[in-house]
Amino acid sequence: MSESISLDVTGMKCGGCESNVTTKLETIDGVISVNAMSKEKKVEVEFNTEKTNIEEISQAITDAGFVVE
Ligand SMILES: [Cu+2]
To answer: What is the pTM of this model?
Structure first.
């Protein structure tokens, strides 16, 4: 089953930051698509609920150096 979430993420300043978040999240098995928007301070993620979860996704964003609100 897949689920889409929208996380409030601060710290992204430009397209490079968006790429960093996207690349990091795409390394997680189960992540289907990522839409990082620095201007809106949001990251939309579609993922397979049998393979990953919000906690793992949030942790990956934190590890990439950004803050999940
Ligand atoms: Cu940047």
So the answer is: 0.94
